[in-house]
Structures are given as structure tokens and as C-alpha cells.
Amino acid sequence: MTNKKEEQMKAHQIDNTKKAGLTTNQGLKMAEDEFSLKAGLRGPTLIEDFHFREKMTHFDHERIPERIVHARGVGAHGEFQVYEPLAEITKAGFLNDPSKTTPVFVRFSTVQGSRGSGDTVRDVRGFSTKFYTDEGNYDLVGNNIPVFFIQDAIKFPDFVHAVKPEPHTEVPQGASAHDTFWDFIGQNHETAHTVMWAMSDRGIPRSLRMMEGFGVHTFRLVNAQGKAHFVKFHWKPKLGVHSQVWDEAQKALGKNPDFHRVDLYEAIDKGDFPEWELGLQLIAEEDEFKFDFDILDPTKLWPEEEVPVRLVGKMTLNRNVDNFFAETEQVAFHPGHIVPGIDFSNDPLLQGRLFSYTDTQLSRLGGPNFHQIPINQPVCPYHNNQRDGMHQMAVHKGQTSYHKNGLNENQPEPVLVEEGGFEHYQEKVDGHKVRGRSESFLDFYSQAKLFYNSMTAVEQQHIRDAYSFELGKCESDVVKANAVDLLNHIDHALAKEVAENIDVAVPTTDEGVQSEKRSDALSMEHTIRKTDTRSVALLLTGDVDANQVKAWVEKLAEHNINYSLVGKKAYTLGEMKVKETYDTVDSSLFDAAFLISASSKVADDVLEFIENTYKHAKPLALHLHDDSVLDKCRVETDQPGVFLFKEHNLDHFDSFIEGIAQARFWDRK
């Protein structure tokens, strides 16, 4: 069933899949498109060749400036539906009608790299959602990490300049492991909490479909009576929150730099539609100062044990884009695109973003009419007195383009609040004009310590390894020492191990936060675990039994597990196609592996595949004609998550299915 947004997008489509005669942009039919107009076959090209000039001019201007940050992205269409009316906390229409589906467009992205960078780098991920509501577009512009590096927007250019490739070499691309980034971190301790998240497994998600989203900032929800609550927005993935390990992410980057976007496209094409639940954390205005942190500080989260997340609706992504440039590249998000019932707080980072995004769209999309691009158009009517400008697509009728006017009876005229007109929340503001920071924003370390405390031993080791890798790539001893000093304000043992790994002086005094406080919600150990849409590589060697392989494949399909048959070369096995080879895929691209060997010898590339599966703590199944094929292999078959099948027995296969749902076996040697 199509929605308004789909119909709107289709109205602007040109279907090049159907046969049609070639024309110019003006509709002139062209008989030739391979040769420019010349004065003789070997003569000069003539300037009167309008077809060549039009074609080349368009080509010369096909690229628009990429986003300063979040340049590499992927998008998809979907819909949102609220579970029950939320009238007690907001008058936003799309949050009050459970019978209505609201079209959405979501763009996922990395922060640091250019459009040509890879998907599986260690980075914060953007998670931005455009709701096409009947009251106008609402943009929830967030990340997969609930906090940010800085507290005030005036420092955003400095942060981005520091994390971007260094200007004298344009290196590194899509990575934070370099001097300028860590110099900024060491000089700005407010970054401590967010850097801890980025160095955790949250910085290398398994899939965009298995990633949380956060609005980051504190907003307000306002009901029809004018009562307001502070709110933080969450997206909770129905597949759970899962990550890669660092070695795995690096290998995936080499084998398939488009791993995440391909994963999203293929899931939607197969009908495995990604789903997230919208969660709200709510704090009544009268409770603003009841916590040991400032709720307006964008470097702080609200612990879910203190402020529970209320799940209020579900978003489903169910349609891929038809054209990447027209939709994903041209979509324009803005945290200032809100609807009645949603308003801002005084978060100083949010306040700055409300200016920055419009300014950015003017540069990227060529002028003030970017809202007329189909992907950005609201589904509700819009009327105002804005006219002309670059790329004006509309033909406005009438004599007047101002308010108030008498010639057109003051049309368009402001809408009364009681009829849906937007009204800013009437917050009382009183204070001196100052440049400074509230003292309540000065605790930079407690929540970084909370996050670290909340991790399992394995997750903590991954964090220590990440800091060691990133700082180990830095050249400056001063940068390294300052970063270690920052870590010592969080956790002395963490600082000590990293310092020893990168050969800088270990801090002599323990300045870390002395707290054992934890939040289970922060560890991925407690996430949802299921087999849905997980992927398994079936590694075939020798003359395997096609019927048996088919039975195993059918068993995987029963649990909605994707699979790929992998062989030394592509061939047909019974009714099945072996499409992948050991040259085209790698263990890093799968969640599990199943070696099916009918041979007394297994090639080295096959052994490497299962060794990496084992090394990355993923489920590994083995069905061997000859156990000696593992003699050269660094896999211990008696370890957790290794499933050795001696017979063609589907009952044994169920344990492998359960292992796929578990995903990782961290207690493996």
C-alpha cells in the first residue's frame, strides 16, 4: 500500500527502465549520441553542438559538495506507527493516532570519512530520521551514541577540524587514529565520555540494522495544556545491539568496503525489514535538578535505571531508494524541523545546531529552495510568502508575496494555536549575557567511568585495545601523554595498561573516579539474541552430498538465517548454486561458518577461513570426512561454540542454530 510520500516521489520519477527515444533536456529528439558535431570527420568540434554542450555541462555539475561530516551514508524509506496515544505528554499528531502510519526516511552515516571511505571503520554513526507528518516534517537527527564530544556548538568546527584527515597530508581517511584528534581529546576533557563509547564495540557495529539510535540532546515534549516534559529519544533495534571485533572490522573493510550499506539493501530486498522501537526518557520540568548530572549537558546520558525508557512506537524500513543521489545524497535533515508538541531545551550544543544545518543546506543544495527537492518535501500542503531564489521549482500564482496584505485578504495567514499553529514553549529566561560554562557541566569523568564499569571483562579489554591501537598510531609523545592523563582521570588501571602498551610514562598517582556504579543497559552483553537475518558461510570441499547440504540449508531457512555456499570455484551443486569463492568472501562478512568436508585434505584458504571464525569467537560447525584435515588448523574442537558433527543428523544441527543466536563465545580460548 503506497503512502503520500511514495506517491509524491513517483510523481517526480523518470522511468529509464522502459524503452524511450533519446531527447535533450528540452525534449528535442536526438538521432545521434556517440559523436560530436565536427567540421569534417577529422576537423574541429563546432561550438554550435548544443547537444554536446548540454550533455557535458550537466556532467560537469553532477556532483554537489559532500557533507562536511556524515558524508558517507545510506538511506531507506519506511513507516512509523505509535502504539497508543501520548496526549498526556505531547500534542504531536503522529504520536497520538495508533491507526495512522507516518512515512519516514532514515539515513545512516559515518562521521569522519569522505563519501569514498569504508563502512566498517571505528567511528560514531549518524542515525537521522525524517518523519513526513500531516503537520509538517519532523527530523530526529541523532547518532548511535547517546552523548557527544563537546558541550558548546562554538567548538564544533574545532572538533571536526581535529578529527578530519590532517590538512597537510589528507591522512588518515575514515579514522580517528592520528595526532590532531587525540591532541584535541587531551586538551578538551569534556570529550572523555563520548570517546569511551567510540573506543568500545559500539564504534564498530555489526550492522546498521543492529544499532541503537539516540537523539543525543535534551528536547521538550509539550501537551495541549502547555505542560512540558524534558525528553531524550531512543531507537531500540528489534534485532538487538551487536558489533564486530576490531580485527574482523578491518578484514571486512578490505573485502567489502560497502559491507553495511549492502547489508541494509539486501535485507530490505529480501523482505527482512529492519525494525526499531521508539523509546522516550521523560523528566518532569519540576524534577530538572534532582540528578547528580545536568540534564542539559550533551556529554551526559540519563541512566536507564534512574530514568526508564518507555517504548511508544515502531519504525519499519521497507523500501530501498530508487536513486542514491536524488534521495540519500540530497536529503536535508535539520534538528530545527519540528512539529507542534515538540520543542527545544537550552542544551548549548543543540542551540548551535539549530543555526548550522540551514546554513549547510544552502551551500550543499544550491540555495534556499532545497525543501522543494522531492525527498525533502512535506506531504502536507505548505504556503508562505517566500519566492524566487536558486532552483525555484514552483510556479506561484497571485499578486502578493508579503504579510500583512489587503489585496489577497492576508493570505496565507497565521494559523491559530488551537487550530494547529506552532507555539514556542513559554520558558521564562533571565540572566546576564556571558560567555562561559555552567559549573554543573564541569564533571567530565563520572559517566565515562560509569560506562567503563558497566562493560563486561571482554568489552573492557576491547576498550583498552582500542585506546592502545589509536594512540599507538600517533607520532607525538606529548599527545600520547596527555591522552593517558585524561584516562587516568577516569580509571587508573585503564591508563596504566594503555601507557605501557604505547610506551609512555605511567601516571604515578591514581586520579580516577572512585565509583563502582554500573548500568546494565550500557553493555551489549544484555541485548536481544536471535537467529533472524544472521548469515552463515557453508564451506564446501570435496565431493559433498548435495541432498545433505540441501537439508542443512532448509534447516537454516526455517530459522530465517541467510547462507552462502562457498567453494574453490563457482559451480552447481544439485539444484543449488555455489556462487561465492574463497577469493570473493571472507569470514569477517559472516556471523558463523560451517565447514562441510568430503575430502582428506583442506586447502589453506579454507583453514584460514575457519581459523578467523574461531579467532573472532563466532559459531563454527564442522562436518568432516577425515578429522586429520584439522591437523594444521589452529582450532580446538572442544571449545565453546565449536560444533563437531560426526553423522548426518539434523538433531545435532539444532545446537549450531542455538549458537548462531548467541553470536559470540567469549569464553573460548
Count of extended strands: 18
Shape: globular
At the fourth level of CATH, the homologous superfamily of the largest domain is: Catalase core domain
Low-pLDDT sequence parts: none
Classify the helix fraction into a percent range: 25-40%
Rg for CA atoms: 28 Å
CATH class of the largest domain: Mainly Beta
- Strand proportion: 15-25%
Q: What is the overall number of helices?
A: 16
What class, by secondary structure content? alpha/beta
Q: Which fold does the CATH topology of the largest domain refer to? A: Catalase HpII,  Chain A, domain 1
The pLDDT mean sits at 95
Describe the overall structure:
This protein is an alpha/beta fold. The chain folds into 4 domains: about 1-60, Irregular (Cytochrome C Oxidase, Chain J), CATH 4.10.91.20; about 75-375, Catalase core domain (Catalase HpII,  Chain A, domain 1), CATH 2.40.180; about 445-525, Hemocyanin, N-terminal domain (Up-down Bundle); about 530-660, Rossmann fold. Helix content is about 25%, strand content about 15%. It has 16 helices and 18 strands. Strands 1, 2, 3, 4, 5, 6, 7, 8, 9 and 10 form a 10-stranded antiparallel β-sheet that branches. A 6-stranded parallel β-sheet has the order 15-12-11-16-17-18, with helices on both faces. It has a two-stranded antiparallel sheet with strand order 13-14. Strand 3 and strand 4 (about 135-145) form a beta hairpin. Helix 3 (about 155-165) packs antiparallel against helix 4, helix 11 crosses helix 13 and helix 12 packs antiparallel against helix 13 (about 490-500). The radius of gyration is 28 Å and the shape is globular. The relative contact order is 0.10.
